[in-house]
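Step 1: inspect the first sequence and its tokens.
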Amino acid sequence: MATDRLSATFAAIADPTRRAILARLASGEASVTELAKPFDMTLPAVSKHLKVLENAGLISRGRDAQWRPARLEAARLRDAAKWMERYRIFWVQSLDRLETHLREPQGEDKEHVHRK
């Protein structure tokens, strides 16, 4: 079981249904019924996904009479993005080195360039 915040975040967003729910909540809060519409699943199944997202701190649930809107809590996603940023930098630098290497003349072409 994921115990640290980053692990809980990645475990929660590992599921495509939960990622779709987060994408929907990025445009504003919604009820379980509204969130369930695009999916071929029961309301209790959607509620289970919401509970996972809530336990990971990715959403919060309000209470307005009988309506319990879910809303995105993006801070945990920002934490995950910060963690991944160092690996993005690694890949950008690696690809830059590859590009530099590929632009350098190779083999016979390299000798031909030096003779000019």
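Step 2: inspect the second sequence and its tokens, then contrast the two.
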Amino acid sequence: MANVTARIKKAGKHFEILVDLEEAMKYRRGQSSFIQAETDIIFRDLKKGEKAPSADLMEAFGTEDVNEIVKKIVKDGEVLTTQDFRDAEHEKKIKQVVDFLSKNAIDPKTGNPITPERIKSGLEQAHVSIKNSPLETQINEILDALTKVMPIKLDTKKVRITIPAMHTGKAYGVISQYKETEDWLNDGSLKVVVSVPAGMIMDFYDKLNSVTHGSALTEEIRE
């Protein structure tokens, strides 16, 4: 993988390093706990070869330890990606969407599954913009665009949930994008009906149980 610049501005000053792109992105995503620069120098301007003064490092990072500074730059700063990398990441996102819809969407007219080829063609035809964010946060937007060029709907599971008052704040973020109805009770607890894509239901339950410590009551509604 290519070596690229990672940079950050702290304490009013610029700091740059050279890193392996693949390793840097793994570290940013939390997929790796190790990252190091391609050199043992923190630069003020990498292209000009201007080294950052020790005093500036201490002021901005509180240390002169190159390894610690590299971690902070990669995690909190900007990693300049290549066009090839961006294209590959975009293709991965498209494949993720196509795989998910081919397993979880149907043609509402026939009830039959939709082939990956047809879904990919629909994405191109509808000029769907797939963002670099979790699929669950954009699937409804993607579907809205696809329905304009092809018959498609998700196979969903409808669930009635009662959330204790002490957990409604955190739980609301989990349920909000799937919520069909909500009813706030006098004791502060919340009753909702959600409609969740079948392929996401187990992940949904995991997240709900995590924020409510397993105290939410759920009942699947069979229609």
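Step 3: confirm your contrast with the notes below.
The chain has eight helices and eleven strands. The CA atoms of residues 1 and 22 lie 6 Å apart.
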